[in-house]
From TrEMBL:
Domain RDD: 32-182
Organism: Sphingomonas gellani
Ranges in coiled-coil conformation: none
Domain of life, per lineage: Bacteria
Membrane-spanning parts: 37-63, 70-89, 151-169
Gene Ontology cellular component terms for the protein in this record: membrane
Name of the protein in its database record: Uncharacterized membrane protein YckC, RDD family
Localisation per UniProt entry: Membrane
Membrane topology label: Multi-pass membrane protein
Keywords tagged on the record: Membrane, Transmembrane, Transmembrane helix
Amino acid sequence: MRWPRRRARAPATMRRRFVTPEGVDLRLELGPAGARAGAFVVDALLMLVILVLATIAIGYLLLSSVRGEVFAILWLLGAFALRNGWFTLFELGGRGATPGKRLLGLRVVARDGARLTAGAVIARNAMREIEVFLPLSFLGMQTAQGVADTFLTLFALSWSGIFLFFPLFNRDRLRVGDLVAGTWVVRSSRARLAGDLVQAAPADRRVFSDAALNLYGIHELQTLEEVLRAGRPDAIETVAGIIRAKADMPDDGDDRGFLSDYYVALCARLEQRLMVGQRREDKHAA
C-alpha cells in the first residue's frame, strides 16, 4: 500500500502587490520580523539616550525650584510625548521611517497604495502604547514603589509578549497597529538616490508644459522614482502611457527616457515651489 506523497509547499514569499492609484504594481517586499524588531530596539535606545540627557539637564536646572513630585510628573509627561512623538513625526516625513527603520532599510506604506495619511500613522503608533509601553510602564511603576506582585508582573510581561510576537503569526508580518491603520512595513530600496537619477538623465532632455508638470505632487514623484529604480519594463510602460495620456503628449517609443526626463522636470518644479513656500503633497492638493 503506497501512501500518497505530500506536495512540497512553495516557500512563502515576502513580496506583495502594491498597486498605486495610477494602476502601477510596485510589488514591494515586506520587512522581516527580525529587521522590524531591530529597528524598534534602535529607536528605543535613541529615545533612552535623549530621555537620560534631558532628565539630567532639566533636573540640574529645576532641582532647586521644583518639588520631587512635580518633577516626576513632568518626567512622565515628557517620556510619553517623546515615545509617541518620535514614531509619529518621523513616519509622517517623506521617508515614512524612523531612524531605526532607515538604518535597517524599512519604511511604512499604506496597504491600499495611496499616500500614507496622518490618521494612519497616528493610529498605528497609538496602538503601540497599548501593546508595549502601557503594561511596561505599569510594571515599572509597581517595581519602583516596591509593591510588584508576581501575578501582575507575569500579566504585564505576557501582555507585551503577545503583542510583540504577533507579527510572527500572520503572513504579512502585521502588528495590531498595522491592522488598525491599514499599513505595511516594507523594505526600502537601497538603490541610487534621487540625485543620481537626475544626473543620469541625458543632456538633451524633453521639455514639458506647465500643465503636464502640474499633474502630480511629491507623492507621485516618489512613486515615479521607485518605478525608475525597479526598472521593470511593464511598470515603466504603464506609467509612461498614463502620463502621456494625461499630458496629451505623443508616444516616441522611449518610455524610460521619457520618464527620466519627466522625473527631472517634475523634481525641479516641486523644488522651485518649495523655495517659495508652496508644498504640494500629491495630485489632489491645490
